[in-house]
Design a protein that fits this description.
About 50% of the residues lie in helices and about 10% in strands. With about 550 residues, it is of the alpha+beta class. The strands form 5 sheets. The protein has a 5-stranded mixed sheet, sandwiched between helices. The N and C termini lie far apart (about 150 Å). It binds a DNA duplex (20 and 20 nucleotides) through helix 4.
Length: about 550
Amino acid sequence: MTPSASAARRRNRSRSRRQAPPLSDLDQRILSLLSHHRVLTQNQLAAIEPQTPERTLRYRCARLARRGLLGRTRPYRERGSAPHHLWPTRKGEAIACGGPPPRGGERQEPNPLFLAHAAGLSEIYVALETTLPAGVELARFEREAEAREPFSTWMKHEQRAIAPDVFIEIADGDGGPLLAFIELDMGTMSHRRLKQKAAGYAEYAKADAWRERHDFCPALLFVTTTEKRARAFLAAMEKELGRDALLLTCASDLARRLGGIATEERWLLGTEGEDAVDLLGALREARRPWDEERERIATERQEDDAERERLRSDPAALRSHLRSWRRREWSVDGLGEGVARPLEITLEGDGPLAEAEHRALLALGAIFADPLHFRLAEREPTVRECRAFADLADHCRAAQLRKVADLALRFGEGPELREARRQIEASELLSASDAHWLEQKAADEERSRAEQARLADAYFAWREEEARRLFKAKGFAARLRSDPGDFLDEIDRRSLRLCRSCEEIAYPDPKRARYERARQDIAFRCHFCGGGALAELDDEGGAH
DNA sequence: TCCTGCATGGGGATCAAGTT
DNA sequence: AACTTGATCCCCATGCAGGA
């Protein structure tokens, strides 16, 4: 370059210093990254901004530093030279955050320990952003105030807070989130400070404080410089917490090579000689209780769904299920008496289902929103379903009539069977229990009828006798005009009675009448129901 | 004016040969 | 044996020149 060209360049530069060009998008982005991460090395910035050439980033950073928007230094380093460590000046931060220009002086150059720690946290961020396997990515990376979690302790309800260096959430493909608190120790933390940290996290876990913000307790990742320190922290944590706690503490010695934080299998999960695992392995281990719980719930739901499906499609299964439930609640009443009673009768049955029962139970299954917990859907039955229920009612009616006919054949037809038949024919089905007792009642009536027949036989013999006695007691002329048979009706009307409820004829029972001091020649009790509400016979009514 | 590849150089560690 | 010195390596920044 000629001396005159060089002079021109210097002139240009001095002009641009007087009137700085507006900040480009890239400048803004750099400032915003710096104000978010506090400290970034030139390399970290390049890793976060892979779309911009490194050379360009260096150029921009140098320019921003000249304008006083960021500070930079190259701290001491054991090997080679350290890259620039960049931090936002107060002026630069005001621009990044859109706040008012700062008053007062600029901040001091950060002390080397802080610088190393802050750059280390940024290094963790870069490692998580760039080295996680495909399908797994960093979803949250929160620092300082954002990561702080206040809570009150378990026993004494004192206000405490954990303040991890970083809180991270990693989206683990379909497996859900992985959560962790990170504590970074660059080898500078005193033994006492380590113990304090462990105690704080133990309190947090014991108080179950994580339930406020997280589905499960995030892992505690302790990154330090040596395996010895890592094991010491694990031991301190175990002492504070006990082994059965939900907070999984993992420690590694990766603080000097943070780039390997996500890839190296250096994470220890316990103080005993267990193998070290990689970061995802450790985080998944922390999530395991939650995974198992979710798995259990899913299995349960699947089984319930299968059972619901079975109940909907298998009427016999639905029948036995409803039978076990029925004693507690029978809300099918909501479908009306005309549906509830036939269903109740169907549920009582044990044998194979009839076609009508089969179809009605299928319809009932379809109406249930949840047959397992006996919840009906909030809808009216369809026409088809109503048809199935009506068919079931017809089926039950026919079955009950058949049963009555059968009992009448076996035991003879008494008042109970008559009444039952009348009720069924009037479209009122017998309840399941009434139908159940009907056979017993028919058998009882058979005995009553035998008693009635015995009394009737005795009565007819006595009546012949009595008719002849009355005949003889008439005068000769009267005897010429009649015969003993003419007195039978009169005797019947005097002695026989009709039971008002059974509509059966009651015959006199001399033995019982003697015992009860009643007239021996007049019926006073029904043999079937034992009732005394008897009516006299009208003119047409007579004994057989 | 901005961006970028290339050459160069700086700060520091390491190592081997030379010196005391 | 202890110290010094020069070569070399590592890691990174910076200056220059040319292109967009």
